[in-house]
Amino acid sequence: MEGGDIAWMLMSIALVVFMVPGLALFYGGMVRSKNVGNMLMMNMASIAIVPLLWVTFTYSLGNEGDGRFIGGFDKLGLDGIEGTDLIGVAFLMTFAAITPALISGAVADRMKFSSWCVFLTLWSIIVYTPVTYWVYTGWHHTGLDPAALDFAGGTAIHINAGVAALAVAVVLGPRTGWGKDKMEPHNLSLLLIGTGILWFGWFGFNGGSALAADGAAAQAVINTFVAGSAGMVGWVGIEWLRDGKATVLGTASGLVAGLVAITPAAGFVGTLSSIAFGIVAGIVCYFAIKLKERLMYDDSLDVVGIHGVGGIVGGLLLGLFAQEGVGGQDGLLFGEPAFLLSQVIAMGSVIIFSFAATFAIAKVVDAVMGLRVSEDDEFAGLDASIHGEVVYSD
Question: What CATH number does residue 96 fall under?
Answer without folding.
Answer: 1.10.3430.10
